Amino acid sequence: MKHLTILVPDGHPNPITIISTFMAFTQAEKNHVMKWNKPVFETIVIAGITKKVNVYNGLFSVTPIEDISRIKKTDFVIIPAFLPQTSPEQNIKLNKKTIEWIVSQYKNGAEVASLCTGAYVLAASGLVDNKKCSIHWNDAEKFRSMFPQVNLVADQVITHEHGLYTCGGAFSFMNLILHLLEKYYGREMAILCAKLFQVDIDRSSQSPYIVFNGQKSHDDDVVLKAQEFIEKNSNDKLSIEKLAKKLAVSRRSLDRRFTKATGNTPIEYMQRVKIELAKKQLETSRKTIQEVMYQAGYSDLKAFRDVFKKVTGLSPLEYKAKYHKEAVALPR
Fold it and tell me: Strand pairing partners for 118?
């Protein structure tokens, strides 16, 4: 018999991730017992340190039914996402004892999963150092700056390594929950729960949802000037060599400084800026794929398609069918 702990950390945990996780596992448990007459998780407990955690200025509250100090052994720990009312730094500071408890449970054989921004707390434990970790794409830049020792893969919805699970943001946390249900209850049960909760199963990439806003939380003036130039001339064919000369640095130096500051090479950054421009055109205009390609500064359709799919996970045609306002409005 196994024991599952859904944490209620201090700060502003997202109550949706706590409630939805609890509902999904209790539903799967109920169905499993009806079919096999035995439980997988004998105990599913919502636990924390504080007796009641208020969120949204008291509009909602979550009441743990157990104090984690009384849980000596659990088999699985789930860290919920946090609301933006408190910063990641504050959440880590508020949950030092909880983090120590998570580490002790992991060392004692428990698996641990973080949902969305719960990854900050998991990373603060040191357990995902030099391991893969995912988080909401909008938190990727800040997360990298706080935890450079973690192998962040923000384009993935789910990561799993050495009994540690993480997932991307917002409602994609349900994809990790379905992944865990499949592991513990089987594929049939995961599909059933996906249908009950009306969640797309097996979604593996955040790429189609990423909005590229640049990576400018650094203090390298040369790189900032390079970024500004790339963004202002995104529909032109740009030469990185000419850009380096314009900034009075060598190409090698620009590559090195750019990668250190942003996590992308100048060429990768340029591609992402161009593809972001193309995405907006595909979402809102009636332009053909070829017209959008030319406006983004590409002249080779295959090269454009390859880069677009590398960045978004979809072909330009698939992206337009999924997100264009008129395509979405059409009856199916």
Answer: none
Distance of CA 176 to the CA centre of its chain: 11
CA triple 207-85-79, angle to 5 deg: 60
Are the CB atoms for 65 and 47 separated by under 8 Å? yes
Structure tokens at 160: 């799993």
At 71, list the tokens: 């849980």
pLDDT for 198: 85
Provide the token pair at 124: 């603060």
CB 274 within 8 A of CB 292: no
Same domain, residue pair 33 and 163: yes
Residues 290 and 266 sit within 8 Å (Cβ to Cβ):
no
Q: How far is CA 284 from the centre of its chain?
A: 26
d(CA 231, CA 33): 57
Domain encompassing residue 108: 2-209
* Whether residues 304 and 264 fall in one domain: yes
Query: What mean pLDDT value characterizes the chain?
Result: 90
Reduced to 3 states (helix: H, G, I; strand: E, B; else coil), residue 298 is: coil
The pTM of the whole model exceeds 0.85: no
What residue type is assigned to position 62 of the chain?
V
CB distance 329 to 267 below 8 Å = no
Q: Which of 185, 209, 233 is the last residue of a domain?
A: 209
Q: State how far the Cα of 227 lies from the Cα of 58, in Å rounded to an integer.
A: 42
User: On the CB side of 22, how many CA atoms lie within 13 Å of its CA?
Assistant: 19
- Tokens representing 61 are 């509250």
Q: What is the per-residue pLDDT for 332?
A: 39
Query: What is the signed CA dihedral for 86, 91, 89, 157, rounded to 10 degrees?
Result: -90
Write out pLDDT tens, residues 257-271: 999 888 889 999 999
154, pLDDT greater than 60: yes
Q: Tokens representing 110? A: 């428990």
pLDDT of amino acid 312? 87
Rounded CA-CA distance 318/94 in Å is 44
- Cα distances (angstroms) measured from residue 226 to each of 211, 222, 242, 245: 20, 6, 11, 11
In a domain, 310, yes or no: yes
